[in-house]
Amino acid sequence: MIDFKQASKLYSNRTQPAVSNISLQVDRGEFVFFVGPSGAGKSTLIKLIFREQALTSGEIKIEGRDLSILKESELLSHRRKIGMVFQDYRLLKQKTVYENVAFALEVIGRSPEEIRSKVPAVLAEVGLAGKEKAFPTELSGGEQQRVGIARAIVKDPLIILADEPTGNLDRDNAWQIMELFEAINRRGTTVIIATHALDMVEHMKKRVVALENGLIIRDERQGSYSYEH
Ligand code: ADP
Ligand code: ADP
């Protein structure tokens, strides 16, 4: 479903590519961790899949579509298929929990009826029933990230892309968020998570794609974070 072929990205003000010669296939329904030190290229891969950044050379196809030749309208429909989750949540502070999730559907033109039925269902699924009227600043970090995840899944994406989603959370909350991603994945959604969270990656026994200096140095089906363990 996601197919990188010898893909490289050189940011315009740089001499070294952020990722080089990446060949990587991710099938529908997979759960994949991108791991590696800071600066390894994890975020860049995520941005390339979302087509927030464009490749310098090589190719990325999503469901057979070449991302480098999308027209504006195709770009929007591509992004609709992807739910993004961020380390810093990126919620709208002036909107309530309900409104934050509803807004994700409003901007893609979904009907008020659909919004009224989906938003409460998704909030219940992430464990936020009863918090609809709260504002982000009234929530804990773990709860804010649950809103972030609700907003990502409410549009029934094919793929969830999460960049350090537990980076600002304590251990317990981080685990709960990982369990939520696992539940989402069990429903068939492809989940890709860039993370430093060694102990979680070890424990989850999912596919691990390890990056260093922009290169894939390891790709294991039931991987761990590093060889040392
Ligand atoms: P990671 O997510 O693993 O920390 P990144 O993909 O953010 O790695 O970064 C990979 C390399 O690309 C780093 O050297 C980083 O400094 C560089 N980089 C990332 N984003 C940009 C950008 N917008 N402009 C220039 N260089 C960037
Ligand atoms: P429906 O058939 O009405 O979509 P579902 O039981 O499939 O009902 O979904 C119930 C809710 O869960 C819906 O609001 C939907 O947006 C959300 N949902 C659908 N797919 C997923 C998924 N893979 N992970 C998490 N939530 C999902």
UniProtKB/TrEMBL annotation:
SUPFAM superfamilies according to UniProt: P-loop containing nucleoside triphosphate hydrolases
Listed InterPro entries: AAA+_ATPase, ABC_transporter-like_ATP-bd, ABC_transporter-like_CS, ABC_transpr_LolD-like, Cell_div_FtsE, P-loop_NTPase
Example GO biological process: cell division
Places the protein is found: Cell membrane
Superkingdom to which the source organism belongs: Bacteria
Residue intervals of the ABC transporter domain: 2-229
A GO term for molecular function: transmembrane transporter activity
Pfam families the UniProt entry points to: ABC_tran
Entry keyword annotation includes Membrane: yes
A Gene Ontology cellular-component term: plasma membrane
Membrane topology of the entry: Peripheral membrane protein
Subunit structure and binding partners: Homodimer. Forms a membrane-associated complex with FtsX.
PANTHER family: CELL DIVISION ATP-BINDING PROTEIN FTSE (PTHR24220:SF470), IMPORT ATP-BINDING PROTEIN (PTHR24220)
NCBIfam families noted in UniProt: FtsE
Entry function: Part of the ABC transporter FtsEX involved in cellular division.
Protein name: Cell division ATP-binding protein FtsE
Phylogenetic placement of the source organism: Bacteria, Bacillati, Bacillota, Desulfuribacillia, Desulfuribacillales
